[in-house]
Specification:
The protein has 421 residues and is mostly beta strands. 10% of the residues lie in helices and 52% in strands. It has four helices and 35 strands. The longest helix is centred in the first third of the chain and has 15 residues, at 9-23. It starts with a strand and ends with a strand.
Length: 421
């Protein structure tokens, strides 16, 4: 490869299960079209993309890459700063950073203890200039944002969890609300989504006027202590026989599904489809089971109700940019965490493909990049794909890079990485 340098235990268990399921659906789910209510921008915890560029976080801090000029710089305006000092403003932990005009916004979360010793989780939406010389809180709300945010027109949509806290410890119980924040006057409205025990919701994408959410819940709690757990969860997982008995009972009471928040009516509507693999433009992609161990990747169009066959086989993950879907073939296996069937990717036996949405053409991808290399596709510009590149074996974590489109399909070896200044 050529690299060019240019300048409580129950809570933890449920989170582990939830993360395993979520990661199987999100290669890069932040690519969405215009909705019926305005242009859509996805605000991720580590990056946000506008027409002009991308704000992202690498290991050293917050950076901005400009699409037109190719310039990449840390969010710091101090003369002679090397961006390694802890007081460098670029190193401040500001997740969910995004720009509207010349104004920078980000979310910070903390906790407050009331006079009666009740602990509450509070989040704050801050506004500042890019130099951080003028900072003020424009909105505060009780709860925490655990999903991508969506800026649609002048409205910011956030799925907020207000967790139940017992003796200072966050539990699996709580309330989810969809917040909509008017970014012109910072007025706030919210719609109740769900409240209960052992529940979890994640906001994943937008199709037309629908904000798509994944949810999971358990009918009841299953106590691992009843199965022999005495130490931490990692040690319990090494007790294969008892852990397997425990997980079999957990999965008996575990349920998952999909729903959406209607931007026009503010109602929550169930989606009668299997859990998605990917969301892109006007379609909901999922592995459709057609027989024992047999699957097809299909795209469901909400507007027409029609399904289109994309790939004849199971798919483990998808990424997309422009009119191209990049598909990783999968195979059914028994998951080592849940002991239930999952679709996994094995680079030695599973292929990679490029599907052209405009022509319906499917071609094999040649991927000679290092085994642990990851490409998070961001933008298509002037015959190039722009992405965030990571490869921990090379000590690289979220570096902006670009590559000719034909090279991305045929080799993935000629990478140009752009260091922030």
């Amino acid at each position: 490869m050529i690299i060019k340098e240019h300048k409580n235990y129950k809570k933890h268990l449920l989170l582990l299960i939830f993360i395993l399921i979520i990661t199987s659906h999100t290669a890069c789910d932040g690519k969405v079209p215009d909705s019926g209510s305005g242009k859509v921008r996805v605000i991720k915890s580590h990056c946000s993309v506008s027409d002009e560029g991308i704000i992202y976080e690498d290991d050293n801090g917050k950076c901005y890459y400009d699409f037109s000029s190719g310039g990449n710089a840390y969010f710091c305006f101090r003369p002679n700063c090397d961006h390694y000092n802890v007081d460098c403003v670029a190193r401040a932990n500001h997740p969910y950073t995004f720009l509207i005009g010349n104004d920078q916004y980000y979310i910070k979360t903390g906790s407050l203890t009331d006079k009666d010793s009740k602990v509450r989780i509070i989040s704050y939406l801050y506004k500042s200039d890019v130099s951080h010389s003028d900072v003020k809180c424009v909105v505060d709300f009780e709860g925490i944002n655990l999903s991508d945010g969506f800026l649609i027109g002048d409205t910011l949509y956030l799925l907020i969890l207000k967790p139940d806290i017992v003796d200072g410890v966050q539990t699996n119980n709580g309330r989810y609300d969809m917040y909509r924040i008017n970014m012109k006057n910072y007025s706030v409205k919210k719609t109740h989504v769900k409240e209960g025990d052992n529940i979890g919701y994640i906001l994943f994408g937008c199709i037309d006027n629908k904000l798509i959410m994944y949810y999971r819940y358990m009918d009841k709690e299953i106590d691992p202590a009843d199965y022999g757990k005495t130490g931490d969860m990692a040690s319990f997982m090494e007790d294969t026989e008892n852990y397997r008995r425990y997980m079999e009972d957990v999965m008996e009471v575990f349920h998952e599904g999909m729903c959406y928040y209607d931007i026009k009516t503010h109602k929550i509507v169930d989606i009668d489809l299997p859990v998605f693999t990917f969301l892109y433009k006007d379609s909901y992609y999922y592995n459709k089971k057609i027989g024992e161990g047999l699957y097809q990747l299909v795209a469901y169009n909400f507007a027409t109700g029609e399904e289109t066959l994309i790939f004849n086989g199971p798919v483990s993950s998808i990424d997309a940019v422009g009119d191209m879907l990049f598909i990783k073939e999968g195979k059914e296996a028994i998951g080592q965490l849940t002991f239930t069937p999952v679709i996994t990717f094995d680079k030695a036996t599973c292929g990679e493909y490029a599907y052209n949405l405009a022509t319906g053409e499917l071609n094999k991808v040649v991927n000679n990049s290092p085994e642990k290399a990851e490409f998070e596709l961001i933008e298509e510009r002037d015959g190039y794909y722009i992405f965030l590149y990571s490869n921990l074996s090379e000590g690289i974590h979220r570096r902006v890079g670009y590559m000719l489109k034909e090279d991305f399909i045929n080799g993935r070896e000629k990478i140009t990485l752009v260091d922030p200044l």
